[in-house]
Amino acid sequence: MADTTSTSSGTTLPTGTSSVSTLSDWAGPYVTNMLGQAAAVANQPYQTYQGPLTAGPSSIQNQLFSGIGNLTLPQNYGQSWTNTGAPQMPNVNVPSQTQSVSQAGAGNTSTSGLTNTQMAQPDNNSIAAQYMNPYLAQSLTPQLNLLAQQAQTNEQSDLGKLTSQGAFGGSRQAVLQGMDQNALLGQQANLIGQGYNTAYNNAQNQFNTEQQQANTLANTMANIGGQQQALNQAGVTADYNEFLNQRNYPMTQLQFEQSMLQGLPISTVSNAVQPQSGLASLASTVGGLGSLLTGPTGLTSIMNSLKTLGVTS
């Protein structure tokens, strides 16, 4: 509750104190200079960094990325080995089919009996055919051709002997040629059996090896691709953060200026409240005239009050 004081007329007037917070006198010049410098700093424009925001890939990494980017996975990557469509071994008991293997490998696809061998079907794109046919053409066919050449050479030598003996064209010639033909077929049959078995096994092993290599390559490509993506993401993130810095710069400056006002040396000054003046007392008194007039001595009381306030002589 506020303190009160009494006037000579017995009127009670309020008294008290008021508090005012001000900057301490000793810190005034320093704070004024500091806030001026802070305002000058806050008004400076945003300075954009002109250099690269990220290191980026090295020259070695660029070469690696370029090399990996030029690699491709095998067409059959991710598939499993199957013998469906594998070249079928010809019937070694049929001369036309046995001999057709080497002739087909040499490019002659019109030989009779080729319907029993897949080597005469270039449109066969099965996995087994893709891996077996190269072996059959590059390994088995030359061996069969060599056997045929040797058999022909031996036959010519035998026919020469028959001619010298005057037996050329007779039954001995037919028997001799039949024996040479059977020997050739036997050798071809043995070679073909081993060749197709080897071709199948080699094809399967090569396919599995290539699948393993392809898996390794795929993992390597994924890892290198991840590194490349991470480098690109670092650049994108740096650019985005720079955008945020530029966008938030005005607000950051306002926060900086506000922080300069924190913790300043403030002192509090208390001032005494003076009693009300005569006119203020008059206003208070006049406010109660209504009640004074209702009493028997109301007018006299009013006049006395005015005299007390010095309004009348």
Radius of gyration: 58 Å
- How many DSSP helices? 8
As a percent range, the share of helical residues equals: 55-70%
Return the average pLDDT rounded to an integer: 76
Question: Short summary of the structure?
Answer:
This protein is 60% helix and 8% strand.
Report on the structure:
This protein is mostly helical. It has a three-stranded antiparallel β-sheet with strand order 1-2-3, with no helix packed on it. It has eight helices and three strands; from the N terminus they run ββαααααβααα.
List the helices and strands and how they pair.
Blueprint: E1 3-6, E2 12-23, H1 28-42, H2 59-69, H3 95-105, H4 127-164, H5 171-259, E3 266-273, H6 278-286, H7 289-293, H8 298-308
What distinguishing features does this structure have?
3-stranded antiparallel β-sheet; mainly alpha; 3 strands
